[in-house]
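Summary for the lay section of the report: proteins are chains of building blocks that fold into shapes. Here we show the chain for 2-oxoglutarate ferredoxin oxidoreductase, delta subunit and then a coded description of the shape we predicted for it.
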Amino acid sequence: MARIIVDDVHCKGCGLCVAACPKGVLALDSERITPKGYHPAKLVDPDGCIGCSSCYMTCPDVAITVVR
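The coded shape description reads as follows.
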């Protein structure tokens, strides 16, 4: 099982990772705000993540780490 870690310091909530996820297991977290004032991405279905790294490769701010 894979999972992702989103670094709130660097995530600007652009949503590119959400769009790139082939399994649709990412979403912008409407309940949290980063120190810079953005809604960060979050993993909404940990069991659905396949560790493909599409989110990591798409993130322009290198705010995502994939753990396998």
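Put simply, here is one thing we learned. The longest strand covers residues 3-6.
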